[in-house]
């Protein structure tokens, strides 16, 4: 009878349980719960007697809590539903009581509440423990797929589809990938956490000596940005990325490209000078990477330029390099002069000086490329 009344109170499970638990299971578990509570009350009442009643099924609250967690019931609603049992039990005890039982009821009301509250607490504790385990398993599962996507091992044909489901990222989704050395990855990890707080799909993974983060591009980051070296500057995430120290690969399409994009992002991140601020794209480091390769294979190609520049005094070297780099970005004497706050004749004089020292004419594209590669790792 009490179980039936409980089912009426929760509208057959629509209230609190929202249809997540089948009505027949809910009625059976409510009957067992009320039986458990009555056993607890009998145990309280018989405390100190020679023959206490048989102990309750102590594992019952744990089983209920675990099952409700797996069924997706909300913790607060579960606890609220269980606390309805106090009202049911107390009103039934009042109905059973005779006129002379008022004192007995008053003495034992605390036992009724303690039994119900303790029961609810044990269920909630088991419920929360199970939710934590479920979350850990889910997180481990996602991280396993992230690790597999970034692995150098051959991908099983079904991996991408399974990873797509686990990570909630469509197979052909547009993705950004960024990386930072693990010794300097705080800003990148904070950025990833910020995306997750916004319920964006963002995943972090330690990959060699780098931390890699990839995330779904905002819907406004259209196909026009795909493969563009500095496409991230036009991304809706550009403002949030502005102060994140990392290398970032061009926007790419699909989970299958994550490994290649991560490798690009890591290569960018690992060649950045220590004082480089904010994200860096391929266009920021191509000369550094080219210079590193040439220095290994053809050091004379680099040294022929550096020896002349390094022999200058610090002030002249600084102004000469600043002028060369600024001119290489503009290709225009007047714009270079405006950027450096000097006269255009000063710019031309410095460029002629550079040509005399190195033999490289910055107005000639081939010479300019050689100069930029040779001077890539020289600080101003």
TrEMBL record:
Limits of the PucR C-terminal helix-turn-helix domain:
320-375
Q: Which Pfam families match?
A: HTH_30, RsbRD_N
Q: InterPro entries, per this entry?
A: CdaR-like_regulators (IPR051448), PucR_C-HTH_dom (IPR025736), PucR_C-HTH_sf (IPR042070), RsbRD_N_dom (IPR025751)
Give start and end of each RsbT co-antagonist protein RsbRD N-terminal domain. 3-132
The protein's name is PucR C-terminal helix-turn-helix domain-containing protein
Q: What organism is the protein native to?
A: Mycobacterium stomatepiae
Q: What is the lineage of its organism?
A: Bacteria, Bacillati, Actinomycetota, Actinomycetes, Mycobacteriales
């Amino acid at each position: 009878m009490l179980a039936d009344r409980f089912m009426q109170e929760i509208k057959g499970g629509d209230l609190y349980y929202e249809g997540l638990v089948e009505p027949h299971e809910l009625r059976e578990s409510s009957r067992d719960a009320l039986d458990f509570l009555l056993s607890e009350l009998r145990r309280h009442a018989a405390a100190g007697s020679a023959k206490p009643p048989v102990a309750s099924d102590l594992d019952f609250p744990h089983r209920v809590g675990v099952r409700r967690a797996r069924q997706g019931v909300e913790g607060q609603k579960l606890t609220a539903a269980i606390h309805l049992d106090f009202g049911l039990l107390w009103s039934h005890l009042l109905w059973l009581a005779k006129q002379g039982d008022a004192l007995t009821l008053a003495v034992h009301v605390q036992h009724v509440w303690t039994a119900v509250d303790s029961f609810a607490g044990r269920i909630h504790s088991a419920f929360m423990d199970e939710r934590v385990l479920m979350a850990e398993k889910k997180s481990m599962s996602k991280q396993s797929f992230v690790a597999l996507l970034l692995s150098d091992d051959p991908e099983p044909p079904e991996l991408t589809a399974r990873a797509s489901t686990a990570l909630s990222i469509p197979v052909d989704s547009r993705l950004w990938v960024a990386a930072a050395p693990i010794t300097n990855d705080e800003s990148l990890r904070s950025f990833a956490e910020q995306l997750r707080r916004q319920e964006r799909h963002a995943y972090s993974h330690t990959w060699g000596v780098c931390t890699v983060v990839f995330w779904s591009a905002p819907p406004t980051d259209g196909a026009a940005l795909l493969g563009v070296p500095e496409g991230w500057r036009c991304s809706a995430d550009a403002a949030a990325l502005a102060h994140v120290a990392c290398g970032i690969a061009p926007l790419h399409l699909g989970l299958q490209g994550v490994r290649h994009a991560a490798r690009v992002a890591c290569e960018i991140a690992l060649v950045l000078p220590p004082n480089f601020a904010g994200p860096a794209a391929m266009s920021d480091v191509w000369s550094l990477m080219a210079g590193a390769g040439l220095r290994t294979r053809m050091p004379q190609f680099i040294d022929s330029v550096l020896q002349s520049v390094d022999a200058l005094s610090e002030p002249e070297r600084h102004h000469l390099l600043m002028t060369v780099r600024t001119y290489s970005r503009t290709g225009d004497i007047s714009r270079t002069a405006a950027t450096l706050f000097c006269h255009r004749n000063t710019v031309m004089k410095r460029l002629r000086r550079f040509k005399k020292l190195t033999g490289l004419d910055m107005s000639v594209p081939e010479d300019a490329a050689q100069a930029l590669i040779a001077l890539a790792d020289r600080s101003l």
